[in-house]
Amino acid sequence: MDAPERDSHHNPENKAEQIKLSFEPLSADTLQEALALAKTIFPYDYEKLEEAYYSSINPDDAGWQKRRMLKYFAVKDEETGRIIAITGLYNWKVHAEDEVWLGWFGVSPNMRGQGIGKRVLEWTMQKAREKGYKKFRLWTTDDKGEQDAQKLYDDMGMSIYKQEKNTEKEYTTLYREINL
User: Fold this and answer.
1) Would you write out the chain's pLDDT as a tens digit for each of its 180 residues?
2) How far, CA to CA in Å, does 84 sit from each of 40, 89, 97, 105, 169?
3) What one-character-per-residue DSSP string does 1-17 give?
4) In this structure, how many other beta carbons lie within 10 angstroms of the beta carbon of residue 74?
5) CA–CA distance, 16 with 149 (Å, rounded to integer)
6) Can you name the residues that pair with 140 across neighbouring β-strands?
7) CB 73 within 8 A of CB 25
8) Which DSSP state fits 34?
9) CB-CB contact of 115 with 143 (8 Å)
10) What DSSP designation does 90 have?
11) Smaller CB count within 10 Å for the chain: N or C?
């Protein structure tokens, strides 16, 4: 099992930065707590998320036939030991080899508004750089429940490069990217 990584960005003047984070690869030990948090963040897509999480910790899963890389992380508050955010990276075989996608990124609803999402996203992008990816992509929607996430993505310099209207669900899927 990989050792947890510490977040080195610590500035006591910022409340969010007072929370020490550790990033642990998703494992059998963290799976159930991560899934419980994920269900609160992504209630409508939970079945897809659950499938991806199980595939990520089971390299023999049939889902790997379509993937080059799939890695999720549980982000813990070091003081409480609780998982307060989730993040991940993936690359399907249909994607360019030098691009990576943000997978199931979110912060616990009771921990939002403290800058944790930005720290987790920065860490995830750094992980992608370390793995040699050149382009970082994600998809999201223009649903008003995702306005804070859109602001974060804008602030991080992620531009919208494609939009698809979903007439069944009355929202538009936004595809964003940034060069690493």
Assistant:
1) 455 555 544 443 455 558 999 999 999 999 999 999 999 999 888 998 999 999 999 988 887 788 888 999 999 999 999 999 999 999 999 999 999 999 999 999 999 999 999 999 999 999 999 999 999 999 999 988 888 999 999 999 999 999 999 888 788 999 999 999
2) 11, 18, 31, 11, 29
3) -PPPEEP----TTSHHH
4) 25
5) 17
6) 174
7) yes
8) H
9) no
10) E
11) N
CATH code that applies to domain 5-134: 3.40.630.30
Using CA atoms in the order 99, 72, 148, 95, what is the torsion angle rounded to 10 degrees? 20
Q: What residue spans define the domains of the chain?
A: 5-134
Q: Which amino acid is at 38?
A: A
Given the structure tokens 């939009």, which residue do they identify? 163
- Could you count the other beta carbons within 10 Å of the beta carbon of residue 14? 13
For the question of whether the overall pTM of this predicted structure is more than 0.90, the answer is no
Beta bridge partners of 101: 90, 137
Here the tokens at position 4 are 């947890």
Cβ burial of 70 (10 Å; 0-12, 13-18, 19+) is buried
- Cα separation, 1 vs 24, in Å, equals 9
In the block, tokens 């409508």 appear at 44
Between 31-41 and 46-57, two packed helices, what is the crossing angle to 10 degrees?
A: 160
Instruction: Supply the angle between the helices 116-130 and 147-155 in degrees, to the nearest 10.
Output: 50
Strand partners, 5: 23
Sign of CA dihedral 21, 156, 149, 58: negative
